[in-house]
């Protein structure tokens, strides 16, 4: 009886746990060439890494979903540090499985001052080796109303810093959302020494 009970719980946990979608066999390391990518930004225009990599430091940060707790803290940290980052020659882009429309709501609600890229199928995340799971619906508040935002996929919270040579200068797979922008500022200062 106990064995059957345990098997029942194991089956329930397996069903309830998010399934990671197969990712390309990518395991970027510091010093590796960063992947070239493009995606629609929050204005609906195509943002191309080739337009900025080699000219600036580029932060590419992946996050699970717009307007959720940790993701909002992370985005607002970058927003608040944007002048300092820009003064150091850094461009920041946030990437999630949210749609262009979701990003427009998030950007307006939190007054974000950097591009958000729509990676609904997880192609950009997979190019960086970032694990993704199936998307879903996030129930959030925006403009004082309860709304639902649908994501194509949900990426793990990982941050990459690409140097001016187009190489990975930092890979953080254990991101502390609220401190991410400060960690990037420290990394930039260390690289410039």
Quick structural gist:
This protein has 193 residues and is an alpha+beta fold. The chain is built from six helices and eleven strands.
Explain this structure.
The structure is a single chain. The chain is α+β, with helices and mostly antiparallel strands and 193 residues long. The chain has one domain: Glutaredoxin (3-Layer(aba) Sandwich). Helices cover 32% and strands 26% of the residues. The protein contains 6 helices and 11 strands. The strands form 3 sheets. It has a 7-stranded mixed sheet. A two-stranded antiparallel sheet has the order 6-9. β7 and β8 form a beta hairpin. The longest helix is centred in the first third of the chain and has 15 residues. The N terminus is likely disordered.
Write the layout of secondary structure elements.
Elements: H1 2-16, E1 38-41, E2 46-48, E3 57-62, H2 69-80, H3 82-87, E4 90-96, H4 100-110, E5 116-118, H5 123-127, E6 132-134, E7 137-142, E8 145-150, E9 153-155, E10 158-162, E11 168-172, H6 180-192
Parallel strand pairs: 3-4, 4-5
Antiparallel strand pairs: 1-2, 1-5, 3-10, 6-9, 7-8, 10-11
Number of strands: 11
Question: What percent of residues are in strands?
Answer: 25-35%
Structural class: alpha+beta
**What string, H for helix and E for strand, traces the elements in order?**
HEEEHHEHEHEEEEEEH
Shape: globular
Tell me the CATH superfamily: Glutaredoxin
Report the end-to-end length measured between terminal Cα atoms.
65 Å
Features:
7-stranded mixed β-sheet; 26% strand; two-stranded antiparallel ribbon; 11 strands; disordered N terminus; 193 residues; alpha+beta; globular; Glutaredoxin
